[in-house]
Design a protein that fits this description.
Layout lengths: L3 E6 L5 E2 L14 E5 L1 H7 L2 H5 L29 E3 L1 H7 L4 E5 L9 H14 L4 E5 L3 H13 L2 E7 L4 H8 L4 E4 L3 H13 L4 E2 L5 H6 L2 H10 L7 E5 L4 H15 L9 E7 L4 H7 L25 H11 L2 E5 L2 H14 L5 H15 L9 E5 L23 H13 L1
Helix pairs in contact: 3-13, 4-5, 5-6, 9-10, 10-12, 11-12, 13-14
Bound molecules: pyridoxal-5'-phosphate and zinc ion.
């Protein structure tokens, strides 16, 4: 890739060739894609982006794989919707919802997997694999199918049915009796003597770059401007760090004037090591054993947790720990005001937003984006007890008795 110079260790700065590797041999720091921004600046403009496809690949100059090889099922360019009704409810006049549940497999993970699977093809792998909290499984299996690769997807066995079946329909899914951190460890061991592309392990430097596209899209969809606040659901912290990186890159390249966005961490009470580190003023999140209904956020040892805390601090952002009981409340609030059915992670985001608005952390007129990263149809269990329906016989009389009667009383 002419736009990429190397993989670079985030800790000691050592450079590595572009290979399926993810950790520094010297200091064990994570590797990150290092671009040649001078070369990119010559090739990228608002116009060149607008001429591109209506997918993440419109930003290919800032991605580590080639648009010509793209494994794409259409990830990206999801709607950014002005949230008038929810805004009124919360006293926010300038609120936007980025609806990434509108991606092909209904979560933002299609972005990262589109990049990782393209890179896997470029590296000539024939098996694509992942350790997943749920949504990554569906995205990996679907992209593997599209690329004609073998898929090998590992998930905790206690996941929601929608996530298990929604992945298994595309290819091979292995349920592991353990939590995500157990699954991840198993996958690292499996990867040692198998030549598989684990999208979030040996392909992680490439994978994570896919999340930058949310930052780019926010800027483009707002009319080439960075928002004042973004609220991001955090699991490993990869998405959080990369939305920030995307906005910074656009500013650095002069595509937008500046990027002074305050970055806000949203986590559920039952798995909140990153938000807790922020609140307690600690740099390093302490690992926890997750116990939350927001299973997509249930990573107890977040690989990018420390970097996320750093970014929240540096930008004047925040960290919020959402009580478990408020997760379904957030899901219902978004559904009832904006007609968007999000999963538990979105419930965490909306409840965080409500708290930040109440506390005055977000001012009434400040441009704010809440990231909705997955669909509620995969986590029906979470709202089953708080949503009511009525059943009638197919007669007017029954309708009057049950529905009209209920409405009057
Ligand atoms: C994976 C996921 C996240 C967060 O992922 P990171 O590991 O922090 O990048 C957020 N929301 C949903 C719905 C997810 O599936
Ligand atoms: Zn290093």
């Amino acid at each position: 890739m002419p736009n990429v110079q190397s993989l670079r260790c985030k800790e000691c700065g050592r450079d590595y060739p572009q290979e399926p590797i993810y950790v520094c041999d010297f200091c064990f720091g994570p590797l990150e894609v290092n671009y040649d921004y001078d070369a990119i600046a010559k090739n990228i403009s608002r116009e060149s982006i607008q001429d591109g496809p209506l997918t993440i690949w419109r930003y290919d100059e800032l991605l580590p794989a080639s648009r010509d090889n793209a494994v794409s099922i259409g990830a990206g360019m999801t709607p950014l919707l002005k949230a008038e009704n929810l805004g009124k409810e919360l006293g926010l006049n300038n609120l936007w919802i980025k609806n990434d549940a509108a991606n092909p497999t209904h979560s933002f993970k299609d972005r990262v997997v589109s990049v990782a699977s393209t890179k896997a093809v470029e590296f000539d792998f024939d098996t694509i694999a992942c350790a997943s909290t749920g949504n990554l499984a569906g995205a990996t299996a679907a992209h593997g199918a599209k690329a004609g690769m073998n898929t090998m997807v590992f998930i905790p066995s206690d996941l929601e049915r929608g996530k298990i079946l929604g992945a298994a329909v595309f290819g091979s899914v292995v349920l592991v009796n353990g939590n995500y951190d157990d699954v991840n460890r198993l996958c690292s061991e499996l990867g040692d003597d198998r030549r598989w592309a684990f999208v979030n392990i040996n392909m992680r430097p490439y994978y994570s770059e896919g999340s930058k596209s949310i930052g780019y899209e926010l800027a483009e969809q707002l009319g080439w401007r960075a928002p004042e606040h973004v609220i991001v659901p955090v699991a490993s912290g990869s998405l959080f760090t990369k939305v920030y990186k995307g906005l910074q890159e656009f500013a650095q390249l002069g595509i937008i004037d500046s990027a002074d966005t305050k970055m806000h961490i949203a986590q559920p009470f039952g798995c909140s090591p990153v938000a807790k580190a922020f609140v307690e003023g600690q740099a390093h999140p302490k690992p926890v054993v997750p116990d939350t209904i927001a299973k997509s956020l249930a990573i107890g040892s977040p690989a990018d947790g420390m970097y996320s805390v750093g970014i929240a601090n540096k930008t004047g952002g925040s960290g919020t720990i959402v009580p478990e009981s408020e997760i379904s409340e957030g899901m219902k609030l978004l559904a009832e005001t904006e007609g968007i059915f999000t999963e538990t992670a979105g419930g965490v985001v909306i409840s965080t937003l409500r708290r930040l608005a109440r506390e005055g952390v977000i001012g009434p007129d400040e441009e704010t984006v809440a990231l909705i990263t997955g669909t509620g149809l995969k986590t029906l269990e979470a709202i089953a007890d708080s949503v009511e329906t009525v059943t009638i016989d197919p007669t007017i009389r029954s309708f009057d008795e049950v529905v009209t009667g209920a409405a009057v009383s």
